[in-house]
Amino acid sequence: MADPAFAAAFGSVLVDRAEMFRADKKIIFTLQSSAPLDKGLCARLLAALEPEFPGFELKIRNLFGYAHLDEVALLELTEELKGEGIPINGFLDQAQVSIQGTAITLGVRRGTKILSEVQFPRVLAERIRERTGALPTVELVLLTDQAEQQKQVQRLEQKTAAPAIKFESKKSLPPLKVDGLDLTDKPATVFHGKPFKPKDLTPLKDQGGEGGKCMIWGDVFLSDFNGNFS
């Protein structure tokens, strides 16, 4: 014998129709009630009917008045859409639902772009009309919690308070001085090899015979050649 809660829930429910889809092994019972039926009680009803229809998947489609649409019933409809392949994922977790007449607002923390691309607001509105007979407007709103808002404000304040970078003109280098050489600022003329910047200069008299390779830098005041190329 059914308990009083179960009997009361289905006592005034009308069976609108039952549809059997043999190819899909599925039976859908369309039940009409004034308010949304409890999900747990519907599961109990299907479990009681399963022995009568072995091998078939049983489902309930609940028709009810739009005036009784609440947050729980709305989110159950979104779960139906999720089971049918709409990529809702976890975007509606901790969603804030507002129902003002036929205007429905869903506040979500992420996923508004994807949900809009798959036309989730339109699909949900059509599902609500299918079940209630009324077509609402569904709007998605991106929520940002207070902690995240405070972090954004702090980041903005830090950027605003950051000191401006001061660019200084490049300082001119001091003139090159080498003891024993009369140097000028006139650049040297390269007649062989590659130009170089003199540094760590060693006077030729201190170079010694075992110094390895060296480069001689200075002024040519006389040239002479003795010997032959043979």
Q: What does this 3D model show about the protein?
A:
Strands 1-2-3 form a three-stranded mixed beta sheet, with helices on both faces. It has a three-stranded mixed beta sheet with strand order 4-5-6. It contains six helices and six strands, in the order H-E-E-H-E-H-E-E-H-H-E-H. Strand 4 (96-100) and strand 5 (103-108) form a beta hairpin. Among the domains are: 11-64, no CATH class; 66-153, 2-Layer Sandwich (GMP Synthetase, Chain A, domain 3), CATH 3.30.300.180. Helix 3 crosses helix 5 (120-132). It has 230 residues and is α/β, with parallel strands linked by helices.
Strand content: 15-25%
CATH fourth-tier homologous superfamily of one domain: DnaA, N-terminal domain
Share in helix: 25-40%
Order of helices and strands: HEEHEHEEHHEH
CATH architectural type of one domain: 2-Layer Sandwich
**Mean model confidence by pLDDT:** 82
Low-confidence stretches: none
And the CATH topology of one domain? GMP Synthetase, Chain A, domain 3
Quickly give the structural class. Answer: alpha/beta
Q: Widest sheet: strand order?
A: 1-2-3
CA-CA gap between termini: 128 Å
Count the E strands: 6
CATH class of one domain: Alpha Beta
Write the layout of secondary structure elements.
Layout: H1 4-11, E1 14-21, E2 26-32, H2 39-49, E3 57-63, H3 71-83, E4 96-100, E5 103-108, H4 112-117, H5 120-132, E6 137-142, H6 146-161
Parallel strand pairs: 2-3, 5-6
Antiparallel strand pairs: 1-2, 4-5
Question: Can you give me a brief rundown of this structure?
Answer:
This protein is α/β, with parallel strands linked by helices and 230 residues long. 29% of the residues lie in helices and 17% in strands.
